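Dear colleagues,

As part of the handover before I leave the project, I'm documenting each prediction I ran so the next person doesn't have to rerun anything. This entry is a single chain, and its sequence is reproduced below.
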Amino acid sequence: MGSIGAQEKPRLAIQSFGNPKEFPNSGIAETLTGQLRTGLAATGRFQILQGVGTGLDAVDAEQGLAKSGKSQAASSPRAGRFAGAQYLLTGSVTEFSYKEQKFTDTSVRTAGSTGVEVFLQTATVRLDFQLVDAETRAQVFAATGIGGATARSATSQMTIYNRLVATQGSVTTELKDSLMGRAADQAVRDLVRKLSDGSNVARQALADATGAAERERLSAAEGEIVAELADGNFVVSVGRDAGIVVGTILNVETEVISRDKTGKEVYRERVPVGVLRVTDVSMRDRAKAAKVSVAAATRQPRAGDHVAPEVTAGNRPPEAGPVSAPAGRAPSTVIAPERRAGGPGEAQVRQADRYLEDGLFAEAADQYRRAMAAEGESAPLLEKLSQSLFATRDFLEGEKTAERIVAAGNSYSTMMIHRHGFGRCLGHLRIGPQKLAFQATTGDHVLSLDPSQIIRFDEVSATGFGAGRDVPALEVTYRDVKGDEEKFTLMAMAYAKLDSRRVYVEGKDLEDTTKLHRVLKRLVSSYVLPTTSH
């Protein structure tokens, strides 16, 4: 799909939703689709493209015209794409119902009557939708926008409802100021909110696709060390044309020749001798790189050694700790360890906290960013921003934000559930430079470890959390003060629900819990564990 920056907006084509099956010829879906376009455009989270037709069949039809040569050449989508869109939004109005019950209210009487007629009215609207990759047709995510309204009125709205379901054109006028209009507005708002949060899921999917393409490109990039510089750095024969960027990890190998007793060459093999990290890519076909200290290094890299990029999601060498900023270069921003209340971003922070409590995670992230733009970055606000991003399933930006906190010397905290011999308890896992700790909030379980105590930090599948099934978990294997080996098992709570009896985590939430665990494991591997343990 091409290169995508961290903040690029996904390009979205919105297909007209399908009508309720009871009212196939009405103008309900057309009107609500228009409201949806307006609402999504106002969020600024997608580039909204114009689409036609209803559902994926319309996309297939347009692509069929493109293949047959009957459509306009300039506007024809290539096979597997729709008018330049990266994503398609398609769906249906699955419920558009109105009920009213008439009764006599005897508490209100007029002269000569036993009461007044009152209508109890209920309006419900459901919009089922799915966000689909325009190229592969794979579903990115699906959900439902739900709206409902109730009223107690002396006036029936059944005539308005009958006009709504019978009108074949726009029903904007009929919806205005009606109970069905209130329910429809709520459903559209709910859908917009979920898609606003889902834009980060779409952007993450784009980043994943781009990352896969870049990893494939990197896997073909091989070269050699062409020179060792006076300052101890190296020049290698691969540059930005091969996909090399600042920070790319290069594994260094040397060729070893085996000979028989007569001196005849009988075998050649490459063996690792070290790791380099790229520091400059000013040239297209060459790059500068610095040596990274790793436990597996056998000797100093030298001219003629073979280099190949480390092709991983994070591009971090498996045995290297965090690399400090180059000598003499200060960090680009200062991250305060604490935040002073009442600063210039206080209003934005309060609004963000309310959004976070209400589950409006994308809006919360925006407000935290605005607060830090006003008063500067601090570890507490970056932590809340990271948690908001993880809640929207934006693992890419969430991890970057969390890592910035730890890289600046602060601790990153996230809510976890700990399984132990007597049950389970909630608490905060804190990841900091050379420190890993857990403090229970619903019990007295405490864990505080330095790198020398930690043996392993693993992803596992575990029982005992009260979920009624195996769930993804993180397991710390460590030595206690007596030198005995112990285990401490945790599961992230970001996507789980908890009551007094059990933990609820199913389907997509299980997958996303695993993704979050991998983020936490990378943080621990980079900033806590000794280089010989992972």
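Residues 1-7, 52-81, 313-332 have pLDDT under 50 and may be disordered. DSSP finds ten helices and 20 strands in the chain.

All the best with the project,
I.
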